From TrEMBL:
Subcellular locations according to the entry: Cell membrane
Highest taxon of the lineage: Bacteria
CDD domains membership: OmpA_C-like (cd07185)
Designated name of the protein: OmpA family protein
Family affiliation: Belongs to the MotB family.
Ranges in coiled-coil conformation: 17-44
Origin organism lineage: Bacteria, Pseudomonadati, Pseudomonadota, Gammaproteobacteria, Pseudomonadales
Protein source organism: Azotobacter chroococcum
Length: 275
């Protein structure tokens, strides 16, 4: 039997199939080439992006290295300056000497001298507050009490005033007249303090010992002012019976507590009393 012949339709289908397969292989090759080209382009782009960072890192390392070398050089110069030729060990060159060795000698500055003179002035005024005061001219009726930074002149109220009165007596005027030159020989402030005993007083003029002690201190201040003592230096204070010297239960104690004190205050003592 003879083989059947292929029909023209079947032959055209086979040719078309071969053409499609060939076209598919071509497309696959083109796709592979495109993928390879894309991969190469990405690598080139990545390298281009990384190159500046690499250069920056290299420059940063170089800057660090140069800083370290500069520091070592400075340290070497300082060591050579300390151990320079013709200078003793540890001696600084003139350009590196401290400021205290400049205009003023170390330890003898103007501030130190001023502080020393100030301290000496304070010690002179407080160590001997009677210095320059003619206390030898005072009579026996004035008691002189020396304390740290002050001098007090204590006078019994029995000499200065009559009982329960604040007007100076003739004997009181005589005693205070002896005290005026002493007060004028000093420039310190003067505090005139009046004291009473604890016996109460009730009168139209003095309702209590507060008024009596204050009035007596004021009478002394007015007399001193009229005899040339600057009023800016003085102040009058009344303490009544709050600062007794002795026991108020006895006649002698009450007599000691009735007194007037004139206190010369140095500036230091005035600040302590204000505090």
């Amino acid at each position: 039997m003879t083989e059947p012949l292929e029909s023209p339709a079947i032959g055209s289908v086979g040719a078309a199939r071969k053409a499609l397969l060939e076209r598919q292989r071509q497309l696959e090759q083109e796709l592979a080439q495109a993928r390879q080209a894309t991969h190469m382009a990405r690598r080139q782009t990545a390298n281009a992006v990384r190159e500046p960072d690499s250069e920056g890192e290299a420059e940063g390392w170089l800057i660090t290295y140069l800083d370290m070398m500069t520091l070592l050089l400075v340290l070497l110069v300082v060591m050579l300056a300390f151990a320079g030729k013709g200078k003793g060990a540890g001696e600084l060159p003139q350009s590196l000497k401290p400021l205290s060795e400049g205009v003023l000698p170390a330890g003898s500055g103007l501030l130190e001298q001023a502080g020393r003179s100030l301290r000496n002035g304070e010690s002179d005024s407080t160590s001997n507050p009677l210095q320059g005061l003619p206390v030898d001219q005072l009579g026996k009726d004035i008691e002189v009490i020396v304390k740290e930074g002050s001098v007090s002149f204590r006078i019994s109220s029995e000499i200065l005033f009559s009982s329960a009165q604040a007007d100076l007596s003739l004997e009181g005027l005589r005693v205070l007249q002896q005290l005026v030159p002493v007060l004028n020989s000093s420039r310190h402030d003067i505090v005139v303090v009046g004291h009473t005993d604890s016996l109460p007083i009730r009168s139209a003029r003095f309702p209590s010992n507060w008024e009596l002690s204050g009035a007596r201190a004021g009478s002394v201040v007015r007399y001193l002012e009229s005899n040339g003592v600057a009023r800016q230096r003085m102040r009058a204070v009344g303490f009544a019976d709050t600062r007794p010297l002795a026991d108020n239960s006895t006649l002698e104690g009450r007599a000691s507590n009735r007194r007037v004190e004139l206190i010369l205050e140095t500036p230091q003592a005035a600040e302590m009393s204000d505090d």
